[in-house]
Structures are given as C-alpha cells and as structure tokens.
Design a protein that fits this description.
By secondary structure, the chain is mainly β. The chain has three helices and 39 strands.
Length: 548
C-alpha cells in the first residue's frame, strides 16, 4: 500500500511540474480519442493560435482585465493550460488604472517569426500595438505602437516567407478591420506593408475587401499564405448570428474572391465566429473559433478543415460539429484544462486570476503562509457600484454548472470594511461580511444595471459574532473565519455560507448571471471600505475550489 501511495504521489508531482490541471466541471477530452466542444468552456473571445513544431500557443482578447493577453499552450489543440500573460500594464495609466470596461486589448493575433513570438492587437482608441518574446511563457517586451490612431482593430501580420508553392518576398504585411464606434465606418478590411521587423508602417493602407450588405460586419481578419494564394479568413454577419468567410488572391492587396466556409446551418451552434486556422505538423488542418454563450462569454470550439475543394470548408460540409476525433499529436498530451481552483501555496497568484484594471500592490498580494491577502480598497465618496472599482480579483467561469467554495478570514479595523465573494457583470451580486460595531453583518450586495450607473442595494441576512479579536491596544482588528460559496447552474447563482465548511446555509435569493462589456460574467473576491479613517482591513483567502 505504501509503495502504491508513493507512486501516486510521484505521478502527481510529475504532472504538477508540467503545470497540468484537470477540471472537475468541464473536460473536452473524452479519453477515447475524441473530443467534445467547446474545447475551452470559458471566455477566450477572438482566439488566435500559432503552431511552432508540435506546440500550439493561443491568445485572446482581454480588454481592461489585467494581466492581459493570456497565453495558453497545448500539444493537441484540445487540452490547454494557461502558461502566462503577455501584457502586465496598459497605457495610458490615467485611463487603465481604473476599470475601462470594453476598452484596451481587442482581438489579438499571435505569430512566430525568426525565433520570436509576436502579438499584435488593436486598441480602438490608441492604435495598433505589438509585443514580442522569445519564450511565450516568459517575459514579453514593452508594447510598441506600430500605427497610432483611432478605429483600427483586429490586426494580423503576415511575413511573406513562402509556403512551398508561392515564392517568398521577404516582406511583412498587416491586415486590419475597423470599429464603427471610433472611425464611423466598418465592414471593410485594409492591408498595408510594415517594415521587416514588424514595428512600423512603410506603406499606405488599401481597402482589400468591403463586406457591404451581403457580408456586413466583416471584421477579425487573419492573414495566411497557402497553396500559392494569400488568404484572409474572417467572420461576418455579427457575433450572435454570423458566419465564416475565406478569401484568396494572388496579391496581398487583392482583389480577393470569397466564399462562406462555415455557418450555423441546422446546428445549435449560433454564429460560429472569429478564430484561427492551424496547419499541424502532421499535415492536418483545424480551425478554432468562438461561440457566444451570453453570460458565459465567448467560448472556443475546434473544427476540422477540409481543403479538398481548394477552399477551407470547416466542420462537416460547412456546419460546425460538437464532437470529433482529436487532432493527431506527435507527442502524448495528458488531459489538461485551464487552471481554476487555487490553494495559494506557492507564493504566486494563479494564472487564472485577473484584476479589473492595472494592478496596484495595495490591492493585495500572496503571503508566505499560503494565503492571498486582499486589502480593503477606499471607495470614492460618490460610490454607486463595484462597476467602478479596480481591485476586484476575478476569473472566468469554465462550465455551465459548477460550485465555487472559498475559505476566508476577514480582518476589519473599523466600521464599514467588508469582503466576500462576487459574481460580477453588468449586473452583479456579492455575499460579504461587513463590520458594524463589535459584530459582522452578513449581507448581499446586488446591483442591476451597474453599467448604466445604477446603485447597489444591500440586504442584511444575519448578524455574526467575530470568531477572533486582537488583544493589542494599537489598531485592533476583529476577525471572521468562514466559508463562502456560489453554486451556478445554467446561469442561475445561489449563495451560501458556513462556519465549519460542512453545513452550509443559503444566503439570499437566486441571482441571474449577466455578462460584462465584451466579456462574460466573472467570479472572485471583493475587499472594500467606505470612509476609512484608520488602517485598512483585509481578507485572507486560504483557498478557492471549483467543483461539481
């Protein structure tokens, strides 16, 4: 028995060393050589992927959430692990040090060129940005503004290195779309030439495609060269009910002929949208795209691609599939999913977590004894809701049904300091404990229409005695040790609490999840204070676990 236990522990250590995490609530790998969509049941909107040998790297839009530009790794396009983020701070600080909902990183593209990884994205208010790195899991460069200006979105570079059929020109081109909200027009794609290092423009833009009425809302282009053609693959028709286009030309500047290569058809997969074509080392072709799931955000599907007609027909004859045989992998890929649960035992914040704005050390940090400490944030005098608060520590839901349980200790130095667990979006609800005198109030803080400036409502559910208190005379605190829980089922959230981690009591009415601005709803922690006169309070999160 001891020998078996030793082997199991050793295997766990090996998998931990490789960063493999397996979700209890959604795993796309069926374990029999097939997979079930979505391969990422989480809000990785506008995904793009590049292949480097037998390894695949994915990034996605992150908007105002920091750290931004998540980097995921896979060996088979089905099992994914978060390995880092390419963006730690967004500029200008006066904009992104507070929640700038819906702004920031839009629709990035990731490419590998001459031993380096490049990510381009459009900030619709400032221009086309780029970062690069030799190690995608390591440190990325400071952002470079490749093209300054408003309205440019969804950029993708193409280093014309040849494809075995077409001759290399040694030049670099960039395609991008346009945001009507900033430029006054959309549905067109433009191409221009960049310097060979991809850092500056050396050519004037040309409109290479106008979707017009037939393919309205053309956006999100990805640029490739294959079989002697320049290819642009992009969505049209809008997020909810759109379709995929492929277009080809013998010149990067067109004219391009086009074809619809994926649409909803008779399936339940609405608006199969923006994504990435991948040609694998084994010679197979696949397409990853997002599908809008409302409050859950834009989740990622994987479709086979058939080039037999000369066009990249996706799914099964243009209609997306739910299940399929997995891609052929050149090396074994253990079952893995993006990280969710966090024990906070290694002195690092898990890569699944993001703040609602640029990080400030006073928001909180890991502790040496295996906690995540979140200090109370000073709310403004005109506070209405958490929509305007930057220190929310949140992560994406990764399934339609799941339970979040957290063990916390809240330390309060004075009245009106509070902390707890929240499901955040345009509407939100939080279960918190708030100090009042020598006791804590268990409260639900709920706001309907936070994005419209509505104020939150607070409902007191119970009065709780502190579980501990300081005896020192200087700035004493009282403490509340407890377990907080959110159970989610098809968009409905129920909150509960426990003093022993075994017997949980319901805490208020059910709450319906609602998406944020361009992102899905997210859950995590709040730690706030009104009218602070003395020291900050804090909440120590011992662990958070995501279960069925």
């Amino acid at each position: 028995m001891r020998r078996i236990l030793f082997i199991l522990v050793s295997l766990c250590a090996v998998f931990s060393a490789f960063g493999q995490y397996k979700s209890q609530v959604w795993t796309p790998d069926n374990g029999d050589g097939t997979y079930t969509n979505p391969v990422l049941y989480a809000d990785y909107s506008d995904p793009d992927v590049c292949a480097v040998g037998a390894d695949y790297y994915l990034t996605a839009s992150s908007f105002n959430c920091m750290p931004g530009l998540p980097i995921l790794h896979s060996k088979d396009l089905v099992n994914w692990t978060i390995i880092g983020h390419a963006l730690q701070v967004q500029e200008p600080r006066e904009v992104f040090d507070k929640p700038a909902h819906g702004k920031g990183v839009w629709a990035p593209s990731i490419r590998h060129h001459k031993g380096e990884f490049y990510i381009y994205w459009g900030d619709p208010d400032y221009g086309i940005m780029m970062v690069k790195a030799k190690d995608p899991a390591g440190e990325w460069s400071e952002p470079v503004c490749v093209i300054a200006g408003k309205g440019m979105i969804d950029p993708c570079p193409l280093w014309d290195e040849g494809d075995g059929e077409g001759q290399s020109t040694g030049r670099c081109y960039l395609v991008n779309g346009w945001a009507n909200s900033r430029s006054g027009f959309n549905s067109v794609l433009t191409v221009r030439e960049l310097s060979e290092d991809g850092t500056r423009v050396i050519g004037q833009p040309r409109i290479v495609f106008d979707g017009g009425q037939v393919n309205h809302t053309t956006e999100g282009p990805k640029f490739y060269k294959y079989n002697g053609y320049y290819w642009i693959m992009c969505p049209a028709g809008g997020v909810a009910m759109g379709w995929q286009l492929a277009m080809r030309s013998k010149s990067p500047y067109g004219p391009y002929e086009w074809k619809r290569v994926m649409w909803q058809g008779k399936t339940t997969i609405n608006g199969p949208h923006q994504g990435a074509w991948v040609h694998t080392a084994s010679g197979e072709d696949w397409f990853l795209h997002f599908n809008d799931k409302g409050a859950y955000g834009r989740v990622v599907f994987l479709q086979p691609v058939d080039w037999s007609t000369g066009w990249p027909m996706m799914g099964k004859d243009g209609e997306p599939v739910m299940t399929h045989n997995k891609p052929t992998a050149s090396s074994q890929q253990p079952i893995a999913t993006p990280q969710e649960s966090d024990e906070f035992n290694d002195g690092e914040m898990g890569k699944q977590w993001q703040w609602h704005a640029n990080y400030d050390q006073k928001y909180g940090m890991p502790t040496a004894d295996g906690m995540m400490r979140l200090y109370t944030y000073d709310l403004p005098k005109d506070y209405r809701s958490l929509w305007d608060v930057p220190n929310l520590l949140l992560q994406k839901p990764t399934a339609s049904c799941f339970t979040v349980t957290a063990k916390v200790r809240f330390a309060s130095k004075e009245d009106s300091q509070y902390g707890g667990l929240v499901m955040m979006g345009r509407d939100y609800s939080a279960l918190v404990v708030l100090r009042q005198g020598d006791a804590f109030l268990l409260q639900r803080h709920t706001c309907m229409g936070a994005d419209q400036g509505q104020s939150e409502e607070r409902t007191t559910l119970a009065t709780l005695n502190p579980t501990d208190r300081d005896t020192i005379p200087y700035s004493p605190a009282i403490y509340m040790d407890m377990y907080l829980r959110i159970t989610v089922k098809e968009g409905q959230c129920r909150f509960a609490y426990s003093m022993d981690g075994k017997r949980f009591k319901d805490a208020g009415e059910a709450f319906t999840m609602r998406e944020g601005k361009w992102i899905g709803a997210k859950f995590g922690f709040v730690s706030e204070c009104r009218d602070r006169k003395a020291n900050r309070g804090w909440m120590d999160v011992d662990w958070v676990r995501i279960t069925k």
